[in-house]
Amino acid sequence: MSARPEALEWSVDNCTVGRAMEILGERWTFVVLREIANGIRRFDDMRVRTNIPRQVLTNRLAMLVEAGVLRKEPYQDPGARVRHEYRLTEMGFDLWPVIVAVLQWGDRYLADPEGSPLSTVHRDCGAPVRSVLRCDAGHEVTNPREVAARPGPGAHRRS
Amino acid sequence: MSARPEALEWSVDNCTVGRAMEILGERWTFVVLREIANGIRRFDDMRVRTNIPRQVLTNRLAMLVEAGVLRKEPYQDPGARVRHEYRLTEMGFDLWPVIVAVLQWGDRYLADPEGSPLSTVHRDCGAPVRSVLRCDAGHEVTNPREVAARPGPGAHRRS
DNA sequence: CACCCTAAGTCTCGTTGACAGACCCAGCAA
DNA sequence: TTGCTGGGTCTGTCAACGAGACTTAGGGTG
C-alpha cells in the first residue's frame, strides 16, 4: 500500500467543490455566465450567439435562477410588451473570480494564435484584471505546485 | 431596442471560455481534479470516495488524459503488479487557481455551518491560500462589480 | 497446481438529458 | 386581420449517465 494519501481518511460528502459543481458543472452553465457577464442578458441574444438549443438554455437559466445565481428582471423596449432579462445576483457576481480564472487558463492553453477574443478590465482604471493566488502571510504563489490541500474545519472522517 | 450590448457585435466561436468548458464543463471533471489535487490518484480510491460510476470515471479520466490535463503514471505496490495512477500535468497544475476560486465560492455560499471540509495552504509557510483579482495597475479588486469584459486581441465580428 | 484476491476495467440495460426542428402565444403595429 | 418578435413549449431521436454483474492480469496461499 506504500503511503496511502491522507485525504482517504476524510469524507467527501459535504465538499463544497462538489456542491458548487452541482450548479456550475452542467455543460453550458459557464457559457451562460460568460454571456451575462458580457452584458448579454436576453434569451434570444444568448441563443443566437451561443447556439445553445432553446430547451437547454431555458433549463439552464431556470436552474441558475433557482440556485440564486441569476435573477429575472422585467424590462420593456419602447413599443413592445414587458419581457424579462437575466442578471447576476450577488452570488452570481461573486463568480467573477472563477470566470476570470477559467478565462486565463483557456487563454494560455486553448487560444488561437491571434490571442483571446475576450479580456477583463478594471472598470475604474481600464487595466487588465487577472486572478492571482496569494497566501494569508502575503506571499504570492507563482507556481501552483506551491499550493497544497488540507482538511478544513468542516472535515469529518469517513464511515 | 434601447442600447443593445456591445458584445452582440462580436463572435463567440473562438471564445476560450467556451473551449475551456468543453474540457472542464463535464459534470464530474472538477470533482476528479479535486481528488487528484488532494493526492487521490488511483482509480478505485476516487471511485470509493466520490461514488462516480465506474464507467463515467473511466471516461472522464481518459478524456482528461486526452486533453492533456492528466497523465497516466505507472506505479507498483510491493507484491503487486504494475498499475497506473493519474497525475496532474503542467496544464493540470495551472488549474489550481480555478479550483481555489471554485472552492472559495462554494465555501461562501454552500458550506455547512461548521465550515468547509477542505482548505488550501501555501506549502512553504502553511498559511491559507486565496484567489484574488488584481489589475495590472496594481489595484486589488474587492468588489467583483468593478470588473468589466472587453473584446480582446483575438476578437472578430460576427458574420 | 488450483484457487482466491485486488485494481482497474468492460458489458448490459434501463433512464435521463441533449439536441433539432416544429409549433405556440402575447402583445404591438401596419 | 395579419404579421412580427421574443421567449418560450412539444416531440422524437440519439448519446450519455448510472447500477450492477462480469472480466482480466498478475501475485499470493494451500
TrEMBL record, chains A, B:
SUPFAM superfamilies: Winged helix' DNA-binding domain (SSF46785). Residues 15-114 form the HTH hxlR-type domain. InterPro entries: HTH_HxlR, WH-like_DNA-bd_sf, WH_DNA-bd_sf. The keyword Transcription applies. Keywords: DNA-binding, Transcription, Transcription regulation. This is HTH hxlR-type domain-containing protein. It comes from Asanoa siamensis.
